[in-house]
Structure formats: structure tokens, C-alpha cells
Amino acid sequence: MSPRSVVAAVTLFCLALAAPAQAGERGLDLRGLVVGAPTTTEDVSRALGVRCGVGYRNAQVCNGQVSFGPVSADVNAVISPTGALRRIALTFSSSSFEDMEDGLQKKFGKPDEAQDSQVQNRFGARFDQRIVVWRGAGGALMTLTQRAGTFDKSSLLFDGPEDRAHLRSIQESVSVKPSDL
């Protein structure tokens, strides 16, 4: 093998290591926290600078404010009773949406899904809406939403299959069933 071939092979190998993983294979994390991984309240407090306490059905809940560069966000993180990180939810000003999307793309690469549309408020005013999704290993999703509930709030939801199943079970338990009528 010529020296030029060796250099080319090493270069390709290094580029492959530096490139973001393919959809569904990439490791998603926020400050080292990984959904579905064993996590303690101390891990979350150290990474996000928030306080934790006991929440619904013995889950550990961590709330507070955190900054990601220029973006200040309210955070809600949930650790399941089994000790796995279930969810990290951030809410922040929609004026910071582009900064957050740019930062996530630099860290995780091109999103797996991007949907652009418009939303309308009760007064008929229309606003651009963008929803961007990165898929990770083990069914983890990172969903960035430009208009989250109100036109001036954006959100980032980092969750996994356990959290989605948990929320479905809660919804089913409080839904009106035909037998209730």
C-alpha cells in the first residue's frame, strides 16, 4: 500500500468518526444526560444546575432555569422510580428558536424530520411554526418546537419510549370512556 493510500484511508477513517451517526443510531444527550440511561438527581443537578425532589408516583423531578449559551430556559427533568432518565423538557423564548436549532444541528447533525407550517391564535393572527426532530438510539427523540402552546414560547423535548408510554397510560386513565357515559 502506497503512503498516499495510507493517508487517504486514515483521512476517511477520521472523517467517519467525526461525522454524526445515521438516523436512529446517533447518541443524543444534553450535557451528558442520556434518556433511558441510569441517572441520579446528583447527575441532573450537576449537569443542569437545578433542584430535584420526589414527584408523581415516586419519580424524581428536577426543575429550574438553565442557560445554553445565550438561550435561557425553564427545565423539567424526570427520573423514573427505577433510576432511568425519562425526560428533559425545556421551555424558552421563541426569539431564541433559531439559536437553539443551530446549536442542535452543530452537535447532532441534520435533523431526521423538519416540518414547516403556520399556526393561528384566537384572534386570527398567523405565525410560522417549525418542528424539528432528531432520532437517537433506543427510540430516543429530541423534538424542537418553535411555537409551544403560545406564540412566544418554544420547547425542546428530549424523551424516550418509557416516557411516551407513561404519558399514554396517564392519558388513558383520565380519558372519558364509553362506559363512563
Layout of helices and strands, plus pairs?
Elements: H1 3-18, H2 41-48, E1 51-54, E2 60-68, E3 71-79, E4 85-93, H3 97-108, E5 113-120, E6 126-135, E7 141-145, E8 153-159, H4 161-174
Antiparallel strand pairs: 1-2, 2-3, 3-4, 4-8, 5-6, 6-7, 7-8
Report on the architecture of this protein.
By secondary structure, this protein is α+β, with helices and mostly antiparallel strands. It has helices at residues 3-18, 41-48, 97-108, 161-174, and strands at residues 51-54, 60-68, 71-79, 85-93, 113-120, 126-135, 141-145, 153-159. An eight-stranded antiparallel sheet has the order 1-2-3-4-8-7-6-5, sandwiched between helices. The model is unreliable at 1-24 (pLDDT under 50).
